[in-house]
Amino acid sequence: MVVFLMETKNKQALLENFRRSLHFQNKCYVDPEGTSGGLALWWTNEVDLDIRFKSKNIIRAVVTRLSHSFSFVSTFIYAPPKRSDRNMFWKDFAKMGRESSFPWLCVGDFNEIGASWEKRGGSLGRDNRVENFQATISECALMDLEFKGNAFTWTNNQRGEANICERIDRAMANVEWRQHFPKAQVFHEVVLGSDHCPLILNCTLPLKRVPKLFKFESMWSTHPTCEEIISDSWDSCVQGSSMFRLAQKLRNCRQSLKEWSAKEFGNNKRKLEALKSQLAVIQADCPSDSNMGEMYQIKKEIETLLDREEMYYHQRSRINWLRYGDRNTSFFHASVIQRRQRNQLLRLKDDNGDWATSEGDINQLLQGYFSNLFQGNGSRNMEDVLASIPQSRNDWVFNHVPVDPRETMARANFGWSEFQGSLGIQGTTRQHTNQISTVTHWECPEEGWVKANCDVAMKKGYPKAAIAVVLRNCKGEVLDGCSSLVKASSTTQGEALAVRLACQLINSNQISRAIIESDNKMVIKLCSTENVPPWECATLIKDIRLISSNFARKFSWVPRACNKASHWVASQAFKGSIPLDWVSILPFALSVICKDDASVEVLS
């Protein structure tokens, strides 16, 4: 066990009394400067700490778990409270990260938030603070170990609107450390007698094993017989109703794929180890024509297995901005570990405020809660519910929203096309409207036109939002773009701000013909018609109509899948992690999205 204390504000003599009473056999101290600062590191004989460096902000040690004979570097951090001192501290910290080639753990008070959601109350301050911190973490190749418990670790203990809470204490590690400690979890405990909450990092917490759900593995599609297995299962003769036949065929297909996978793929890791052993034996012999051919064949099989392994972890990592094929297996594996830890339910508080930690107690609490939930007698006053039904179905009567006959016809045609498709009948016509879209991917505009995609990113209950616009030509190339932090009270207002920004950008670039796309139906409809807008965005819609009159324009609604580029920019801008020069030097993730959009358009 290791304990790290920050801001002790006391010298060794007083702290030694506490250490001995808690039965910690070893210690390391950094005395405070006057009445500020001070660090203390205590540990038991279960681990060995070799202190390599210490200062008023850092204690760096090599930690060895005696039971496993495994060593890693651990940096215990108390970042400078003053902003002016933190810039130099981050530079030194980044240098430390570049020089580290071992499994590395960093834990402590970083005195900085990593994203806008990690602060509640007060102002966010300068955006470059978050960017500098994120750039340092990225340069050191560290990943946040995440946490369970309260979202914030520090509070100023004020009341009302003066209260500020931040997440400035955290534990981070590189991929190598995470792979050695897949069960490690961070807990934010209750704040007692301090403005910081205690952090507990448990490296040996066992994961609860749960039955695995069936998933179609992407690596199966690389095998030539995969399609045949699926076809045979699907073409099997099953008697019964349509729904029963569908369910039974799905069940047959699932079982066939499981049996086929166990036979053809087996245990990937064991196969890899066996092939590597064979390769080592061959490489130890003198080269000859026979063993050179065998060596080539084994290397080819190893490459295939490595590709399968990477595809396996890529599918589970949910990291969309890295593609398999570049040997990102270690990173994908670490992200899968993060997801598994996030899905663990380890503690649950009952109605009395007591924590249940055992699996049996947690199960009992959950069963009791849902039993009471479904047995309880809810309100039987249905007047409000019944009143809302005609209101939602009669916008003309209650909200004075005029009905567009073309939109009604388009919806009817779309429903009829869906019905025909379910019967296997191919439609002969295709409807084009601003509101109903059957497009599933971004489409390049016609030559001579420019397409502006816009979006907003915001958090419920948070007054600030981020808007983004991406301009692209008929080849899918990014011509210009813009992102900005704004105040918005609703998504409608935020989307309207984004569309207005798009119109301003088109106008400033003197573009004569433009298509403006958004995934908000209401805003697109208000921009393309003369309908009376709601009060919250009336001025914005008026501005949009005025500015867009300077050029030939088309307003079009598209689903989120067709609006990935602007959605990504808005999301990153909201987090404070979008580079200032993102238009001139596209970030890797954005370039992948734009490349995919253009390539899908070419293929179609």
From TrEMBL:
GO terms for molecular function: nucleic acid binding; RNA-DNA hybrid ribonuclease activity. It comes from the Eukaryota. Residues 2-196 form the Endonuclease/exonuclease/phosphatase domain. Residues 453-573 form the RNase H type-1 domain. SUPFAM superfamilies: DNase I-like, Ribonuclease H-like. This is RNase H type-1 domain-containing protein. It comes from Rhododendron griersonianum.
